[in-house]
């Protein structure tokens, strides 16, 4: 009987430990989703990686190893699993530049409905001195799209504005939007009716337009950090 009692106590202890472990798993904060990192060094590889993101099971990071020209507009698709696409330089200490090629008029990146794009530690250059007749924006956010710019990202040197948001959401936690221009409105950022812009860090400076050289806001703009510097 003593032997049986000992077995019963061991079984009970194991059961209790199992219950505690299950509860700990259930109550613990959800862990960060796994992500896939894809390294690219050409425009064709960047296009392929963006297309693959549309069906990726988790967040995707595109790490750019060398600068190259953007020869046509890039359309960011919605991800079937709600995942986020981050585009950054492979070496954060040495950001590379993706530069507009003057082949055609286009927005460099278009964020579609349901898509989530993040830029960090990378330079997007509109090449406005050479592409003087092309007026697509660097980033265009469509209805239901989400775009975030983080530390180390620079949107610069574009004729056609830096970021245009049409019924989408734009968040700026860091980075810079500098030295862009638009013929009419929103040299740095243009926020249309029904759109949102939340700025908590970063810098918007040296941009110009007839109206709203830095930020043209016709939607909802919340600023609690960062700085907007007027071009003199």
3D architecture notes:
With 232 residues, the protein is α/β, with parallel strands linked by helices. The protein has two domains: 1-31; 34-229. Helices cover 16% and strands 36% of the residues. It contains two helices and 19 strands. It has helices spanning 2-27, 43-53, and strands at residues 35-40, 59-64, 68-70, 74-76, 85-89, 97-100, 109-111, 116-120, 123-125, 139-141, 146-149, 154-156, 163-165, 169-172, 176-178, 189-191, 196-205, 215-217, 220-229. The strands form two sheets. Strands 1, 2, 3, 5, 6, 8, 9, 11, 12, 14, 15, 17 and 19 form a 13-stranded parallel sheet that branches. Strands 4-7-10-13-16-18 form a six-stranded parallel sheet. Helix 2 links the parallel strand 1 and strand 2 (59-64). The N and C termini lie far apart (93 Å). Mean pLDDT is 88; it is low at 1-9 and 28-32.
Please describe the structure with a list of short key phrases separated by commas or semicolons.
13-stranded parallel sheet; single chain; 2 domains; 232 residues; alpha/beta; six-stranded parallel sheet; 2 helices; disordered N terminus; 19 strands; globular; 36% strand
Write the element-wise H/E pattern from the N-terminal end onward.
Answer: HEHEEEEEEEEEEEEEEEEEE
> Helix content range of the residues, please?
10-25%
Percent of residues in β-strands: 35-45%
Given helix and strand content, the structural type is alpha/beta
Please tell me how large the radius of gyration is: 23 Å
Please tell me what the overall shape is.
globular
Number of strands: 19
Number of domains: 2
Q: For the terminal residues, how far apart are their CA atoms?
A: 93 Å
Runs with pLDDT <50, length 5+?
A: 1-9, 28-32
Number of helices: 2
- What's the rounded overall pLDDT mean? 88
* Biggest sheet record: 13 strands, parallel
């Amino acid at each position: 009987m003593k032997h049986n009692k000992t077995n019963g106590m061991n079984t009970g202890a194991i059961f209790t430990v199992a219950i505690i472990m299950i509860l700990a798993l259930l109550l613990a904060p959800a862990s960060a989703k796994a992500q896939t990192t894809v390294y690219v060094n050409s425009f064709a590889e960047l296009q392929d990686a963006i297309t693959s993101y549309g069906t990726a099971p988790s967040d995707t990071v595109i790490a750019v190893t060398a600068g190259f020209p953007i020869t046509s507009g890039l359309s960011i698709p919605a991800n079937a699993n709600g995942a986020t696409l981050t585009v950054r330089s492979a070496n954060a200490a040495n950001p590379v530049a993706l530069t507009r090629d003057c082949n055609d008029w286009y927005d460099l990146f278009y964020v579609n409905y349901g898509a989530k794009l993040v830029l960090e530690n990378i330079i997007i250059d509109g090449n406005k001195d050479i592409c003087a007749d092309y007026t697509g924006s660097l980033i265009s956010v469509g209805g239901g799209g989400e775009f975030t710019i983080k530390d180390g990202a620079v949107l610069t040197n574009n004729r056609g504005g830096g970021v245009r948001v049409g019924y989408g959401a734009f968040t700026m936690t860091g980075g810079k939007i500098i030295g862009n221009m638009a013929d009419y409105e929103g040299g740095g950022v243009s926020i249309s009716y029904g759109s949102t812009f939340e700025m908590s860090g970063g810098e918007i400076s040296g941009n110009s337009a007839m109206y709203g050289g830095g930020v043209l806001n016709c939607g909802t703009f919340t600023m609690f950090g960062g700085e907007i510097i007027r071009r003199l």
